[in-house]
Write a structure and sequence with these properties.
The chain has about 650 residues and is mainly α. It has 23 helices and eight strands. The chain folds into two domains: about 190 residues, no CATH class; about 350 residues, no CATH class.
Length: about 650
């Protein structure tokens, strides 16, 4: 029975916007021109999207819905049928009060209570913001709202007190910076309407633009003084020395983000054939690990079906996400219907390709040794007249080596294994990161220029789920730490610890076996020489050396040949180095697990989005480093003739 390919995530272009408020002098002087340029840019972007691709979803626009450019672009996006997503630095009510900051303390308290205000001008601004908020998917960093609201009200009650103002500005700026990071991490392009004067004001437009560039997210810079002369920047250093304006740069960003051709929708992963279990032919490498590593598991492994994973290994994750995030069924459903099945698909395909590639190369070493040994076996057996039979066996073994090598190269076992494994590892911990709104920025995804599809595929698959539509609180963050992130970290830590022990044991036993074979070779040659010396001295019968010379010569060839074959397998598989990589990874994960445990032992006020998301980012970096180290070892070890 053929297994159906899991649903592929719909690609989409993600834009983020940051900009000055209307009170900025430069923006106020040319507001009409800036708005016209923004409208033209949005139309230009929409016109460059590949409409022939059926899998392309609507553009997603991320911004913080602050008064000014944020709200202007939010309306432009909604007018074009785009999806509006708002990572809010506070809960909706507090966010509205801080954004608008009415002159009346009573109006402020009314806004914090989600009520109506008396001032008609303030009411109009509030209505506009609430309308946009209702139409947006909001990820509210609301866990510190009570604390910050008290600081905010204290400042408003005594506006002349500089200490109270500084306290509020410090706390609110930090929240805005966190929300800005959530925003540009998901963006293919950040549009910044900025006068380039200040970039060190935490949470400000310049700070957000600089942070985005530092993370590798390109920035389309619009200077309010010359809005028509917009530029696309890719490095922080270009802020002071921007490149020439180029429409082609915008087209290049769109093409790099989603692909401007219909065929870009298809990926090699979708064309891979699924198998329900590992191959019964390519089991040598897995057998070595199991026998020498002390693993009692079955040699043939059954892979988890993509349509089984939600009820299988992914059941706990999905169940936990549903219990944490009851109001956001859309995200959980997308994780269950797309991300987990895609992980199972990539993981199963990668595992089978790994078996073929690594077992094929190990088999080449074994067959090479057998070709030498069996080709010379006619000597001790006294079958010189039948030498052609042994030569034929040797030829067949050598031909098998060539065939395995050609098949491995023809079907690109090495490259396909690398690529599908990258997809699987990216998707493995993706759902947990998504529950925290954490995402790897555009410029932080690795990959080569010619084979970057795994990163783009995983990025679109994960980004498809979107931000959680919820208001964070301490209880939610504690539950994610305790029920999702910590079990994931501990599970991966234990996996790498066990893997390191197993690989080190395999390496030690292979090394010991090779040493024994070389010792036996020395013994066999030494015996012959001693027999020859004894016969020459008259201590032994003269016929003894001749009667056993062919066998001892054969053993002198066979033992070192087998030893060299085992040494070749050790060099190719690099068990010791991979054990070291897993040891380092396990140590890093243990450090994160300890930090999570300390945070969970803290009072609720200590469990805020900043430190929790930082831990999630660290886990993501550890996964990436382990993957890059693993690839660095195996990248040049293509399947080849044993030398």
């Amino acid at each position: 029975m053929t297994t159906a390919r899991p649903a592929q995530a719909r690609r989409h272009l993600s834009l983020a916007v940051t900009g000055h408020r209307h009170t900025n002098d430069a923006l106020e002087a040319s507001l009409g021109r800036v708005e016209a340029v923004l409208a033209d840019l949005f139309d230009r972007i929409a016109g460059n999207l590949p409409g022939v691709s059926e899998d392309l979803g609507p553009v997603r626009l991320y911004n913080l819905l602050a008064e000014g450019i944020d709200q202007t672009t939010a309306q432009l996006a909604l007018d074009r049928g785009w999806r509006l997503v708002a990572p809010l630095p506070f809960g909706k009510a507090l966010n509205a009060a801080i954004n608008i900051q009415p002159a009346s303390l009573d109006d402020t308290r009314a806004m914090l209570a989600d009520g109506e205000v008396a001032d008609p001008a303030v009411a109009a601004r509030l209505s506009r913001l609430r309308t946009l908020t209702e139409r947006a998917r909001c990820f509210e960093l609301a866990e510190r709202d009570e604390e910050i609201a008290a600081i905010f009200l204290a400042m408003l009650a005594d506006p002349q007190d500089p200490a109270k103002r500084r306290a509020f500005e410090a706390q609110s700026s930090d929240r805005v910076a966190l929300a800005g990071r959530v925003m540009f991490e998901r963006a293919d392009l950040l549009i910044a309407v900025w006068d380039c004067k200040v970039c060190n004001l935490i949470g400000g437009t310049g700070h957000t633009a600089h942070a985005a560039l530092a993370s590798g997210t390109p920035v389309l810079l619009i200077d309010p003084a010359e809005p028509e002369d917009w530029r696309i920047l890719t490095r922080p250093e270009e802020i002071a020395n921007p490149p020439a304006a180029s429409v082609h740069s915008l087209e290049a960003v769109i093409e790099a983000a989603i692909g401007a051709r219909a065929q870009d929708a298809a990926t090699p992963l979708q064309s891979e054939r699924w198998h329900r279990s590992s191959s019964r032919i390519w089991t040598l490498y897995r057998g070595l690990e199991k026998v020498l590593g002390g693993d009692s598991g079955a040699l043939v492994t059954r892979y988890e079906q993509p349509d089984e994973i939600v009820e299988g290994s992914g059941n706990k994750t999905i169940g936990t996400m549903r219990s944490l995030n009851r109001l956001d069924d859309e995200q959980v459903s997308r994780v269950a219907s797309t991300i987990l099945p895609q992980f199972a698909w990539a993981d199963g395909i990668s595992s089978r390709l790994s078996d073929a590639y690594r077992s094929g190369m190990c088999l080449n070493f074994v067959l090479a040794a057998l070709a030498v040994i069996l080709g010379a076996a006619y000597l001790p057996l006294g079958l010189a007249e039948q030498k052609w039979i042994f030569a034929g066996i040797e030829l067949a073994l050598l031909a098998s080596i060539v065939a395995i090598t050609l098949i491995g190269k023809r079907y690109a076992w090495h490259a396909r294994w690398f690529e599908t494994r990258r997809v699987a590892e990216y998707l493995r911990h993706g759902p947990i990161m998504l529950a925290l709104g954490v995402f790897r920025p555009t410029g932080k995804w690795p990959g080569s220029a010619d084979r970057a599809w795994p990163e783009q595929y995983a990025r679109h698959t994960l980004r498809f789920a979107g931000l959680p539509d919820l208001a964070l609180d301490h209880h939610y963050l504690r539950a994610v730490l305790e029920k999702l992130l910590l079990p994931h970290v501990e599970g991966q830590r234990d996996y790498h610890r066990a893997k390191a022990r197993r690989l080190r044991k395999v390496d030690h036993r292979l090394d010991h076996f090779a040493e024994i074979l070389f010792v036996l070779a020395i013994v066999s040659v030494s015996i012959y020489l001693l027999l020859k010396l004894g016969a020459g001295l008259g201590l032994l019968p003269y016929s003894w050396p001749g009667s056993v010379s062919l066998w001892l010569t054969f053993l002198g060839i066979a033992f070192p040949t087998l030893g060299a074959s085992i040494a070749g397998i050790r060099f190719f598989a690099d068990f010791e180095r991979f054990a070291a990589i897993s040891d380092v990874t396990a140590g890093k994960l243990q450090g994160v697990a300890e930090r999570i445990a300390l945070l969970l032992a803290s009072p609720d006020r200590a469990i805020s989005y900043g430190p929790v998301s930082a831990l999630a980012h660290q886990v993501d970096e550890i996964v990436l480093e382990e993957l890059e180290n693993w690839q660095a070892v195996f990248s040049a070890k293509h399947i080849s003739l044993p030398a």
